[in-house]
Amino acid sequence: MAIIIKKVSSKKELKTFIRFNYELYRGNPYSVPDLYDDMLGTFSPKRNAAFEFCEADYFLAYRNSHVVGRVAAIINRRANETWNKKEVRFGWIDFIDDFEVSEALLDTVAQWGKERGMEAMVGPLGFTDMDAEGMLIEGFDQLSTMSTIYNFPYYPQHMEKLGFEKETDWVEFKLTVPDKLPEKFVRISEIILQKYKLKIKKLKRKEIKEKNYGQKIFDLINEAYAPLYGYSKMTQGQINQYIKMYLPLIDMRMVSLVEDENGELVAVGISMPSLSEALQKAKGKMLPFGWYHLMKALFFKKPQVLDLLLVGVKPEYQSKGVNALLFYDLVPVYQQMGFKYGESNPELEVNKKVQSQWNAFESVLHKRRRAYKKML
């Protein structure tokens, strides 16, 4: 039977779109499901501030009335203007192992993009860099994280057969928390503190609002991430959204700030306990007991693994070893809290500055993911 592609046009169909991923990866030991309510917010123009500059439609593939695939078609006008491109993004793509299905989904995105004047198709990408991006091409036997995409090994095979080529890769590292910081690392960090007249600040929760540190953090991320592939500067609406959604969940012990002698923020590192296993147990639902698994991982019985969520350094300090100060502060915290390993989460393979910071630690490159591109 032929594949039928249908645009999502109702709440019921959007629910089907979200839940197809849960069904396709049901019982998979490496896939980490998103929370259903979070996905509803992501796909809602009323709740996701990225729609200030993005346009999107969502599509489902059917065969014999059964859903066999899904994909989102997205245009990030802000990114296109920043990088002088006319690209349509495909994101949240999932499909059964059938080339007819993957081809129909991607052809739909291509046509959707052409109708809007686009000249190329790239992905998997979300609305912005704050969404999961990149198709897994190595590390299929590694547990995913809450910030990344897991997909079956046949996905990249489909992409290559359909004529897509590599656009860029991200790499991920598994880091071992050392029993003790290397003396050389400590010595260098203390020299950097003195040389540049810097200080490490531990953030208090009330300061996020009272002293505007939430705004300062995301302003720094905007500045630090500006040169990175496909990045579109966060709007004030997005910043407000992220401050409200994410910062209340963060244990302030796992946040490190570096300031200059004038109190200006020059570096930030934000980490948190891994929620991968908790999200697997929750199965995408907060109720009836999903909340319990998440709260347990966050506040009570923390896992042995932590996630590095955001690491940003002001551009003029990026070649001065300032990022080492973040881990000079955080590693003793990780030791005290009982963490054994850390997940770097995706880093652009060309971003050697970031990857060099792991030289002081035992680390393994254990996942690689790719954005593909095809001219329309």
From TrEMBL:
In the UniProt record, the signal sequence range is none
Q: Which InterPro entries match?
A: Acyl_CoA_acyltransferase, BcerS-like
Matching PANTHER family: PROTEIN YGHO (PTHR41368)
Entry protein name: N-acetyltransferase domain-containing protein
Q: State the organism named in the record.
A: Phocaeicola salanitronis (strain DSM 18170 / JCM 13657 / CCUG 60908 / BL78) (Bacteroides salanitronis)
The top of its lineage is:
Bacteria, Pseudomonadati, Bacteroidota, Bacteroidia, Bacteroidales
